[in-house]
């Protein structure tokens, strides 16, 4: 009786959850509108498209809202939105409810997309960096320092974060296996009585199978072959923090960070020059940075990598005539797109071009690889739960119920492809000396558009530029340092 009631509840829950999926369509449409507005440089419209959801507990909406406000030069509002996203991220990171069986099974019955978006670590190191930029613009340098230190600390704790996530995924798999065993024992207390439903596998053990690895290798050529930056560091975050501390005359801290950035970006002449300037300043051999005033152009180029849903047949571990559908859905990275090859900066007769500090493809791929095993276990767990539902359906209603639930499983088996689409394809930088003889900078925006910036030759400057596509309206702002 218990088993029959349990299956009926599961089948009913499946139907309700399937109906609830219609709400996802609206979320996707809003996300598409945000991306379209952002890629056109319509930052106020992009902010408005995410404002309503950002007022709730939607991390992704808060991230989008904060970035659009920042590009609209509403720095105070951007910090508030980013603060909210970060608070939600911390709550999820620290919340023991992540291991709740109800949440696990609900996501497994449909897909991870119905759960609250928990964010990615590289996204929140950038959140802290963008908050620091906003505080710098508002002259709140103590708060900017705090945010940069938080970003750096997040990077240092990345490996620990990924290991904890994998442990949680394994523990969820074990709990589901134990629950399944207990249900089978209750349905067939007599040891001589053979259980009617198949004993489905442990997801964590299945993820380690050789045949599963071979199937995955057909679809993920880079998995296991990618060498991340040390401790999953984003070189831009490290470089920007080093540059900021250099301009704030904290030479010891700046030297350590710029040394690390220069090591990660050996071909970037700006990073190398800034490291040498910090080295000289730390030794008292010259005023930072190197005696002359400069303007640094920090360029966010294009649209960063995305995610697509990939459905993979892994039938070998669930072969049984009681299960109609056993595929798993996993996310796969899609490539980034730059708005222009580089940004050209002119001053007088001089011409400089931005140089790439980091391709975000590399940073995102590093985290993707580090978290893939946990993602795989969760995807297989979803397949296991849906297989159990189909087997129970056959027991209750025969082949018609089995195939009906199989069709349901096929419809809802989709990977979670949510990500912070505001992240650019590349972070680039140029270093332009100011000599006091006509310090008007010209930015050569694609499409024959030129933007003039008049800078104080007696101060150092950071020029922030973001361009999502060649035809977009760019975000441009400056900040001066004494």
Work out the count of structural domains: 1
Distance between the termini: 78 Å
The biggest sheet amounts to:
5 strands, mixed
N-to-C SSE string, H for helix and E for strand: HHHHHHHHHHHHHHEEEEEEHEEEEE
What does this structure look like?
The chain is α+β, with helices and mostly antiparallel strands and 482 residues long. It has one domain. Helix content is 54%, strand content 15%. The chain has 15 helices and eleven strands. The strands form three sheets. It has a five-stranded mixed beta sheet with strand order 6-7-1-10-11. A four-stranded antiparallel beta sheet has the order 5-4-8-9, with no helix packed on it. It has a two-stranded antiparallel ribbon with strand order 2-3. Helix 3 packs antiparallel against helix 4. The protein starts with a helix and ends with a strand.
Short description:
The protein is α+β, with helices and mostly antiparallel strands.
SSE order and pairing:
Blueprint (H helix, E strand, L loop, with lengths): L1 H19 L1 H19 L2 H12 L4 H13 L3 H20 L6 H9 L11 H17 L3 H16 L1 H30 L15 H5 L2 H8 L17 H13 L3 H14 L4 H14 L10 E9 L4 E7 L15 E7 L9 E4 L2 E4 L1 E5 H53 L13 E9 L5 E6 L3 E6 L5 E8 L7 E7 L1
Helix pairs in contact: 1-15, 2-3, 3-4, 4-5, 5-7, 6-15, 7-8, 8-12, 9-15, 12-13, 13-14
């Amino acid at each position: 009786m218990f088993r029959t009631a349990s299956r009926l509840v599961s089948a009913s829950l499946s139907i309700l959850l399937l109906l609830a999926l219609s709400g996802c369509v609206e979320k996707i449409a809003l996300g598409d509108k945000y991306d379209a507005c952002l890629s056109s440089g319509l930052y106020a419209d992009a902010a408005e498209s995410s404002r309503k959801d950002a007022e709730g507990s939607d991390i992704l909406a808060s991230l989008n809202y904060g970035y659009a406000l920042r590009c609209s030069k509403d720095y105070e509002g951007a910090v508030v939105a980013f603060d909210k996203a970060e608070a939600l991220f911390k709550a999820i990171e620290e919340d023991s409810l992540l291991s709740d069986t109800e949440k696990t099974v609900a996501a497994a019955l449909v897909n991870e997309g119905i759960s609250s978006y928990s964010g990615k670590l590289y996204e929140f190191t950038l959140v802290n960096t963008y908050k620091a930029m906003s505080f710098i613009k508002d002259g709140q340098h103590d708060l900017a320092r705090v945010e940069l230190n938080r970003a750096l600390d997040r990077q240092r704790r990345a490996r620990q974060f990924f290991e904890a996530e994998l442990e949680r995924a394994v523990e969820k798999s074990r709990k589901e296996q134990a629950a399944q065993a207990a249900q089978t024992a209750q349905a067939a207390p007599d040891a001589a009585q053979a259980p009617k439903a198949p004993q489905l596998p442990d997801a964590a053990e299945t993820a380690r199978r050789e045949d599963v690895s071979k199937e995955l290798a057909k679809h993920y050529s880079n998995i296991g072959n990618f060498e991340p930056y040390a401790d999953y560091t984003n070189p831009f975050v490290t470089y920007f923090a080093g540059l900021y501390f250099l301009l704030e005359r904290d030479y010891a801290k700046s030297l350590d960070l710029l040394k690390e950035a220069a090591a990660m970006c050996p071909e970037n002449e700006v990073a190398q020059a800034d490291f040498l300037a910090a080295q000289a300043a730390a030794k008292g051999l010259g005023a930072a940075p190197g005696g002359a005033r400069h303007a640094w152009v920090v360029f966010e180029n294009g649209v960063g990598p995305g995610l697509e849903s990939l459905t993979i047949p892994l039938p070998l571990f669930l072969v049984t005539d009681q299960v109609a559908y056993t595929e798993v859905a996993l996310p796969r990275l899609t490539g980034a797109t730059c708005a222009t090859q580089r940004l050209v900066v002119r001053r007088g007769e001089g011409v400089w071009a931005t140089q790439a500090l980091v391709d975000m493809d590399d940073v995102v791929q590093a985290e993707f690889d580090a978290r893939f095993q946990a993602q795989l276990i969760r995807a297989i767990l979803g397949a296991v739960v849906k297989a159990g539902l189909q087997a129970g359906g056959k027991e209750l209603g025969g082949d018609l119920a089995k195939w009906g639930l199989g069709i349901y499983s096929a419809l809802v088996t989709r990977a979670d492809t949510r990500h912070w689409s505001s992240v650019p394809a590349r972070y680039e930088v140029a270093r332009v000396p100011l000599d006091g003889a006509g310090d008007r900078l010209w930015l050569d925006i694609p499409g024959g558009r030129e933007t003039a910036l008049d800078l104080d030759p007696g101060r150092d400057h950071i020029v922030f530029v973001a361009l999502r596509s060649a035809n977009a309206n760019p975000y441009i702002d400056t900040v001066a340092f004494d």
